[in-house]
Amino acid sequence: MSIIKNKVYFTYILLGSLYFISKLIYYIFGWVCFAGLMLGLIASVLTILIGIASFKEYKKAGKSIVHWLTTLGPLIIILYSPLHMTMRLDIPVFRFPAEKMSILLIFESLAIAQLILSILIHKEHNEIARVSKSKEK
Q: How far apart are CA 48 and CA 15, in angstroms?
């Protein structure tokens, strides 16, 4: 099965690419500094690599570390993004200007969507492992 046919993995990887694309758009408008753009690039590359590696482990019976990274990656982004922005802007999160708050909301929304997809990935992997174990018996 190709990665495009498996919609959960494909969507996870597609959302990963949106981290950088959204930061690039904001960078073009001048609302994000270069460090923020690089943060988007790092988040994008890591989540795409995690998604691809997790898909390669898709058919195996045991749960690999990569499947756990599909959950850990978005959790780190959810926790780190407001912290990073607060430290860079030196103001509390709820006092951000509108454009900065929209950047944060986009990043957090993408991470939450990826977190939901990672739960679906775990469910799907559990079903495959259960079917493969029943075939062995």
A: 8
**For residue 102, what are its two tokens?**
């929209």
pLDDT tens digits, residue range 45-97? 999 998 888 887 766 655 667 778 888 989 999 999 888 888 888 888 788 88
Burial of 9 (0-12, 13-18, 19+ CB in 10 A): buried
Quote the CA–CA distance of 54 and 3 in Å, as a whole number.
10
Distance CA 115, CA 136 (A): 32
CB 22 within 8 A of CB 113: no
Helix axes 65-89, 98-136, angle to 10 degrees: 170
What's the pTM value of the predicted model, to 2 decimals? 0.81
